[in-house]
């Protein structure tokens, strides 16, 4: 995605399988050319079905808040709780956010800001403006009653890995 500001956001979809019923979930970034925001969409297919459900926005206020959500991560707990984390870029700063459902529900609530302070992605730059790369080192895992988003950020002045426990 290349925003009107010439900011390039590299993003890939995330896939997770419900550990009990085998449903497949996919989260992906969606961008409309000419806008100043991007969304994360979520869709799923029930095990044995050959069609996907209509995608829904994970962070529905992206347009009004002009936030760029990208690089989604996805996990489904044994209890059937779906969680999606993503980078949220606004005002030249980055946060990590997480939305999650209730057990066995497709409606996600949130987002909750995971990072305790926003960080400057430009510090991860290897070249000129907007050439930073903060990819490849983030994910989302689930445990009993908790999700563990992990990500790379530059709050220390260096690109480092951070993790949080979200109950």
Can you describe this structure?
The chain is mainly β and 167 residues long. The model has no long low-confidence stretch (mean pLDDT 87). The protein has one domain: Neuraminidase (6 Propeller). Strand 9 and strand 10 form a beta hairpin. It is 2% helix and 42% strand.
List keywords for this structure.
four-stranded antiparallel sheet; mainly beta; globular; 2% helix; Neuraminidase; 167 residues; 1 helix
Reported CATH architecture: 6 Propeller
Q: How would you classify the quaternary structure?
A: single chain
Count of alpha and pi helical runs? 1
Separation, N- and C-terminal Cα atoms: 32 Å
Give the radius of gyration: 16 Å
Percent helix: under 10%
| H and E string | EEEEHEEEEEEE
Spatial sequence of strands, sheet with the most strands: 1-2-3-4
Give the CATH class: Mainly Beta
**Contiguous uncertain segments of 5+ residues:** none
- Principal-axes geometry comes out as globular
Biggest sheet: strands, sense, closure?
4 strands, antiparallel
Structural class of the secondary structure composition?
mainly beta
Per DSSP E runs of 2 or more residues, the count of β-strands stands at 11
Q: Topology, please?
A:
Elements: E1 14-17, E2 24-30, E3 39-45, E4 56-57, H1 62-65, E5 68-76, E6 82-90, E7 93-101, E8 108-113, E9 139-143, E10 146-153, E11 160-163
Antiparallel strand pairs: 1-2, 2-3, 3-4, 5-6, 6-7, 7-8, 9-10, 10-11
């Amino acid at each position: 995605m290349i925003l009107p500001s010439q900011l390039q956001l590299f993003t890939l979809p995330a896939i997770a399988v419900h550990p009990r019923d085998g449903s497949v979930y996919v989260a992906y970034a969606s961008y409309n050319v000419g806008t100043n925001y991007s969304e994360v969409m979520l869709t799923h297919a029930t095990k044995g079905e050959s069609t996907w459900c209509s995608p829904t926005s994970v962070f529905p206020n992206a347009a009004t808040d002009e936030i760029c959500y990208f690089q989604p991560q996805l996990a489904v707990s044994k209890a059937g709780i779906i969680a999606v984390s993503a980078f949220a870029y606004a005002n030249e700063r980055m946060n990590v956010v997480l939305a999650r459902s209730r057990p066995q529900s497709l409606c996600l609530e949130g987002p909750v800001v995971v990072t305790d302070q926003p960080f400057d992605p430009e510090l991860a730059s290897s070249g000129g403006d907007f050439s930073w790369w903060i990819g490849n080192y983030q994910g989302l895992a689930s445990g009993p009653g908790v999700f563990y988003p992990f990500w790379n950020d530059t709050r220390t002045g260096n690109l480092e890995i951070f993790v949080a426990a979200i109950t």
